[in-house]
Amino acid sequence: MFTYVFRRSTQSMAAVVALLVLVFFLARLTGDPAYLYLPLDSTEAQRQAFNELNGFDDPIYIQFFRYLGDLAQLDFGTALSRNRPAMEVTLEAFPETLKLATIAMALALFAAAVVGSLAAARPGGVFDRLATTISLAGASAPDFWVAIVAILVFAVSLGLLPTSGTGSALHWIMPIGVLMLRPFGLLTQVVRGSMMGVLSQPYIKTARAKGVARRRIIFVHALRNALLPVITVAGDLMASLVNGAVVVETIFGWPGIGKLMIDAIVRRDFALIQSTVLVTAVAIFVMNIVIDLIYAAVDPRIRHQQT
Amino acid sequence: MDKAEGASGPKPKRPAGPLRLVFRDPLAACAVVFLIFIALCALVGPVVIGDLATTPNFRARNLAPFDASMGPAYFLGADTLGRSLAARLVVGAQNTLGIAAAAVMCSLFLGGTLGLVAGYARGIGSTLILRLADVIMSFPSLLLALIVLYSLGPSIPNLILVLAITRIPIYLRTMRAEVLEVRERMFVGAATALGASHARIVFRHIAPVVIPTMLTIGAIDFATVVLAESSLSFLGLGIQSPEFTWGSMVATGRGYLSTAWWVAFWPGLMILLTTLSLNILSSWWRTYADPHQRWRLELPRRLRRRIQK
Amino acid sequence: MTEKNSLLTVENLTVDFHSAAGAFRAVNDVSFHVEQGETLVILGESGSGKSVSASAVMGLIDTPPGEIVSGRVTYRGTDVTRMSEERRMAFNGSKVAVIFQDPLSHLNPVYTIGWQLDEVYEVHGKAKGAEARRRSIEVLRRVGIPDPETRVDWYPHQFSGGQRQRIMIGMAIALGPELLIADEPTTALDVSVQAQILDLLKELQREEGLAIVMITHDLEVAANMADRVIVMNAGEIVEQGRARDVFAAPQHDYTRRLMSALPDESSYADHGIAKTAEPILQVRDLSKTFTLSPGLLRAPKSLRAVDSVSFDLRAGETLGIVGESGSGKSTIAKMLLRLTNATSGEALFHGNDIFEMDRAALLKFRRRVQMVFQDPFSSMNPRMSVFSIISEPWQIHPDILEKSRWRARVGELLEMVGLKPEHADRFPHQFSGGQRQRIAIARALACDPELIVCDEAVSALDVSIQMQIIELLAELRDRLGLAYIFITHDLPIVRNFADRILVMQAGQVVEMQQTEAIFRRPEQPYTRMLIEASPKPKWEQPKRIPA
């Protein structure tokens, strides 16, 4: 088990490094940051001085090695747009997104497991048709549009919920609702499909021949097997949950890492782009390892392969 | 089920083809009709009412939907410059679906080829391809697209390229998994034993078996790409004016939410209905393609009820 | 025929399966009865409806797509097909239990076997917690699982195939049912393990007074277990009676055809290959080592699948290679055809080492040596017509035959293997398993080979069809002077076909002799065990005293 986690971590680290390199060079392709940070009427000399100060005038490979050297000393640079250490800004925003994403994912998983299982228990029945249509709609809805319509209905027309920002518990409802929509839709589909597959497995026949009641077959015998592919998909969804977070945070003014990253990209804040990418990537890789461990906990065949 | 030896007898009744079956399922039938309608709009619509979409009409400024005073072209209302929303939706359909289709084809071709190589040839190259796919996969595609798009500059070709790149891993992984499975099948071994060359095995034996799966995935992925493009355009990094897609229409309308909700509402609804139709169809297709589940679509409902009692 | 106080009676049972092509009648007007303590064997080939009728007893038919059109199944006077869900659940497992083929897929992979056994007691309210566990361990001991206290916490994948079937049997007898339905319980198992499972079933029957309904396609297993036999074909009962009578004097045509598939025990293949003939193939010290994928901090493990195997094959000779699963017999075939590389050793084909051949030599070699694979369903590309499948060798080796003659030659080859020329435009899925194997043979014959390697070429087929394919191979051998390497796990099947037999175990040659000598005077204990493990008819067995 230890070997396995170790191997996964080294692989993930390699991927993080590859990603950082990619982002480093891509970010510098976006253009000269001096134009954004100095007044429009700034002179060539002023821009020169600005770039010299921030080290943007050196050849790109020198900048890159300097960046690597700084990284090794855990120096992540200064966020030009805020005049603060980039990592500090990033780590302030990160927990906000983490809370939002974790709650949305947990709710989506739970709802999907229940709805998907019940739908698969009677394929073609009324509940199945309803659940399939709703979950497909959830997976198909453009989240930014749902967010806008939700604001229009619940905040503007009905005045029930605040339009944006943080603070009270009411502020959480719309962001979480919008964010969990897509994972819920996709996961319900996966649970239903996987459950139907499992229910046609021979060991379900054995359970029926043993005299196990239907409800117990679905929720005890089948669900644990049906969850295996769901866990994998949930892992892949973690990355796309950040996609949703970017949109949701932008619309609802949520001070998370997604909003921060958009700001950083638009303002050519290289250090901030890099630190947000680093934190997001590391978080996703940690999440992936956790998911592998959960998988191993649920499936003994995987567990024994590793030892 | 093994028939007795001897010439295999004729089938008793020809099973209904997918086209006839799809119309037995009301939901799937609606999806097909809607998609055909949208495709027609995208193909011929801009030629017919393209002018309406770009000509400002001050008499129709912020015209509410279902107002008959300006004629049928304005039944969905008009935007702040008085342009017919219905006409703009039709033109937007062409851009939205065209970009998505181009992106799907690019990623299908690139991902499929890379996956074929990674699955058939084992070696350093294929490991590298896989690792790269893992990196792309495990990072939020929207952020990746934002960074790439911002550095290359937003334009339609770049948009297509970015969307294609973020979806390549899907095809690559599926193709590789399929090829790994198919190449272990015995007919590949049989062809090798006959002396078939690598090219012959790849193009004559493996490709025809895996291509239908890839096309199915492409059709399913189309909805995801439409959504991704809409998000990018909504965030302002996708398509740039004067060109527009449904996603950028929602972004424009967002500013007039309290005065003219319909400007943002209709294009979003179109995105939802299009992706929903695609997903309904692909869910239907999964049932149809699964030999254990297909009977659910084929048996008339009356018979199913009688048996269930 | 039905007796009043039978344990189980099935009357006029008819079951349909619905699909778009219409209703398929799987079981048609089937009636039988089972008496206390007896063994009734339902014998039939695939698609005969034998499993469906047993599933009806347990209420395991999915409706829809299945439909029980008519009939009654009564257990001690109560109709079980009309039971409520709750009564059905109480009935299943406690009165009647069932075991299946392929125990691995019939055990839930994510729970320990102890959990799955305890559940039997718990859902029927017989015992709970520690008491259930105590009884589970007892049952495991009963069915011969060594060290049950430890293994009760193992998962299904940690056991061998034979042990898993023992666990299934344990789960079935846990509540002491009166009737056990065994659906092909030994089909996936090696012949030596099969013998042990059959013995266990008989022992349990003797001690618990269990009635057994055994469903099988295997004539020898049927003869070994049965008191009475029902023969089914295409959903109908064609013959029934005392096992001994049915086997000795079958009445129905179908039964007679089936029985003729039993190997003739009095004769051996001998078609006079001169012992002095030049060998066409000389295999010396052939070995194959598989390296199991190493972990980062783990030393790679290696598995010696084939270990220094040597043999000769003369022109026109048939060599049977016999071994149980994991003996390395199929790996030999793959190496000889260069489908996988040998680790060491040499194989000289007309004096040239197969493993040293360059591209051109290899291409030439592949015209002269062909292979027929086990599974006729996957050995042909589903998207190619029969014509393109058979003519593919000529596309690869264009000098064999000019294109204008292809169609005529495909027709000739199809006729040679007992099919019709007009079958050339059909696709593989339109044929039955036996027919597909004929097409595969036609493909192998397309480049006039000297040697055909058959890897379990008949294992996936029904018994009566197995015999037909072997007869076809024998006839082609006599007509075309072919040599065969015939690889199989089934020793009796090569009795009337192979000139010599090579017995393998765990990658090594156990012994190699003329066929008659192997059967009459086996030198090694393993060979003797293989011969004796084939089930003997019940009426010929000495009454055994329990140890």
Strands of chain A, total number: 2
Order of helical and strand elements of chain B: HHHHHHHHHHHH
What is the correct CATH architecture of the largest domain in chain A?
A: Orthogonal Bundle
Helix content of chain A: over 70%
Question: What's the quick description here?
Answer:
The complex is a heterotrimer of chains A (307), B (309) and C (547). Chain B is mainly α and 309 residues long. Chain B is 71% helix and 0% strand.
Q: Would you kindly provide a written description of the structure presented here, covering whatever features stand out?
A:
The complex is a heterotrimer of chains A (307), B (309) and C (547). Chain A is an all-alpha fold. Chain A contains 13 helices and 2 strands, in the order ααααββααααααααα. Chain A has a two-stranded antiparallel ribbon with strand order 1-2. Chain A is flat and about 85 Å long. Chain A starts with a helix and ends with a helix. Chain B has a domain at 85-282: MetI-like fold. By secondary structure, chain B is mainly α. Chain C folds into 2 domains: 35-55 and 85-110 and 155-259, Rossmann fold; 281-292 and 301-532, Rossmann fold. Chain C is 34% helix and 26% strand. The longest helix of chain C has 18 residues, at 191-208. Chains in contact: A-B, A-C, B-C. Chains A and B meet through helix 1, helix 6, helix 7, helix 8 and helix 10 of A and helix 4, helix 5, helix 8, helix 9 and helix 10 of B.
Write out key terms for the chains shown.
heterotrimer, B: 309 residues, mainly alpha, MetI-like fold, 71% helix, globular, C: 547 residues, alpha/beta, Rossmann fold, 6-stranded mixed sheet, 34% helix
List strands and helices in order, with pairings.
The complex is a heterotrimer of chains A (307), B (309) and C (547).
Chain A: H1 2-29, H2 34-37, H3 44-54, H4 60-72, E1 78-79, E2 84-85, H5 86-121, H6 126-140, H7 143-157, H8 170-199, H9 202-210, H10 214-252, H11 257-266, H12 270-298, H13 300-306
Helix pairs in contact in A: 1-12, 5-6, 5-8, 5-10, 5-12, 6-8, 7-8, 7-10, 8-10, 10-11, 10-12, 11-12, 12-13
Chain B: H1 18-22, H2 26-54, H3 85-120, H4 124-138, H5 141-152, H6 156-183, H7 186-194, H8 198-234, H9 246-254, H10 262-289, H11 295-298, H12 301-308
Chain C: E1 8-19, E2 22-34, E3 39-43, H1 50-58, E4 66-75, E5 78-79, H2 85-91, E6 96-99, H3 103-106, H4 113-123, H5 129-142, H6 148-151, H7 161-173, E7 179-183, H8 191-208, E8 211-216, H9 219-225, E9 228-233, E10 236-242, H10 243-248, H11 253-259, E11 279-292, E12 301-314, E13 318-323, H12 329-336, E14 344-349, E15 352-353, H13 359-368, E16 369-372, H14 386-396, H15 406-416, H16 433-445, E17 451-455, H17 463-480, E18 483-488, E19 500-505, E20 508-514, H18 515-520, H19 525-533
Parallel strand pairs in C: 3-8, 3-9, 6-7, 7-8, 13-18, 13-19, 16-17, 17-18
Antiparallel strand pairs in C: 1-2, 1-4, 4-5, 9-10, 11-12, 11-14, 14-15, 19-20
Membrane topology (chain B): Multi-pass membrane protein
Main location (chain B): membrane
Subcellular location (chain B): Cell membrane
